[in-house]
Design brief:
Layout: H1 25-33, E1 42-44, E2 64-66, H2 67-76, H3 80-91, H4 94-108, H5 130-142, H6 144-150, E3 154-157, E4 160-163, H7 168-171, E5 175-183, E6 187-196, E7 199-206, H8 211-225, E8 226-232, E9 237-244, E10 250-255, E11 259-264, E12 269-275, E13 280-281, E14 289-297, E15 300-309, H9 322-333
Parallel strand pairs: 9-13
Antiparallel strand pairs: 1-2, 3-4, 5-6, 6-7, 8-11, 9-10, 10-15, 12-14, 14-15
Helix pairs in contact: 1-3, 2-3, 3-4
Length: about 325
């Protein structure tokens, strides 16, 4: 998937719900970061803490740990205890946190996903798809803090050293991280992202035994065969229309939002400006929608963006003629 546009470049069984293991923690971290809690907030591990099944950062009862350390612990070292403690600290219980995870999934359009825990441990009601996890990955990359964490190879926090389990950070040039996962039932799961020449690609595999090589091969294929094209920046003037009765004779019409497409190299992109009117009458208000710019690839429509007035155009007050100014002056000299 192209990270900028969400265009799927290659897929196989992308919408088939499956167990996802610890790549779940991408959603956990995103919900924690959007909860409003400060990363420097110190959380006390409960005295009756019994730990968590599976991978761990070995939290101790009574220990104080920052939310930041828990985030690094769950994303780099895949600590189930870190994910569980962060979830409870932010929502009060695992169950309440899972509700927030599902609400976020719905917001992101993850239609074939459901979460029951913050760790990814096997549960019949806990599943997602490769496509949905790619949507989640896009959201994670848009969160600067989360993107920074998953791209970190190693860090020391609170007396612990966390080393990222994602080998692609060392093995693939341009890799910006993401998350690994594994359980016996789910198999190996992996979400990764890589950047090259201004283009970001996202790769997701579920139950893929050779995932490191698969991701490298898919990235190579994507970067070699596709390019991300910025067709118009937000606010860029795409045409001008005549204005009657205005202080300015013409008005700029601009892109209401950025237009970007990911296309196969060599594909032809066509643009058509579909305008509601071809001439304007003052006054004209900035931001008025006048139509759409339609982009097609090899004749197939791919994108529409609004066309808007770039600036206000006020009415022009009529300038008096020379004779009118002369008689006005004479009239001003006559006694009242």
């Amino acid at each position: 998937m192209d990270g900028e546009t969400g265009t799927v470049l290659y897929e196989k069984n992308a919408h088939e719900p499956r167990l996802i293991a610890s790549i779940t923690k991408l959603m956990t971290a995103l919900v924690v970061l959007e909860s409003g809690h400060d990363q420097k907030e110190e959380i006390t591990v409960p005295s009756d803490w019994a730990g968590a099944e599976g991978s761990s950062i070995y939290l101790r009862p009574g220990e104080q740990v920052t939310l930041e350390a828990l985030l690094y612990g769950m994303l780099l070292q895949s600590g189930n205890d870190a994910a569980t403690l962060a979830a409870v600290a932010c929502a009060g219980s695992v169950e309440a946190f899972a509700e927030k995870m599902n609400a976020k999934a719905a917001e992101l359009g993850m239609k074939d996903s459901h979460f029951t825990n913050p760790t990814g441990l096997n549960d019949e009601g806990h599943y997602s798809t490769a496509y949905d996890m790619a949507l989640l990955a896009r959201a994670c990359l848009e969160n600067d803090t989360l993107a920074k964490i998953v791209a970190t190879k190693s860090v020391a926090l609170g007396g612990r050293v966390f080393t990222n389990h994602n080998k692609l950070l060392w093995q693939y040039e341009g890799c910006v991280g993401m998350k690994t996962g594994y359980t016996e039932k789910a198999g190996r799961t992996l979400v990764s992202a890589a950047e090259r020449d201004g283009m970001t690609l996202i790769c997701v595999t579920l139950n893929a035994p050779n995932d490191w090589a698969d991701h490298a091969a898919l990235f190579d294929r994507g970067f070699a065969g596709y390019e991300s094209c910025l067709l118009a920046e937000e606010g860029e003037v795409l045409c001008r229309l005549p204005v009657s009765g205005g202080l300015a004779p013409f008005c700029g019409v601009s892109a209401g939002e950025a237009a970007r497409l990911c296309v196969a190299r060599g594909e032809e992109i066509q643009r058509e400006l579909v305008l509601d009117q071809t001439a304007l009458t003052a006054p004209v208000a900035q931001g008025t929608v006048l139509g759409e710019a339609v982009y097609r690839v090899n004749g197939e429509e791919k994108l529409r963006i609004p066309l808007v007035v770039i600036t206000d155009v006020d009415c022009c007050l009529r300038t008096p003629s020379g004779w009118e100014r002369f008689w006005d002056k004479i009239a001003g000299m006559l006694p009242g």
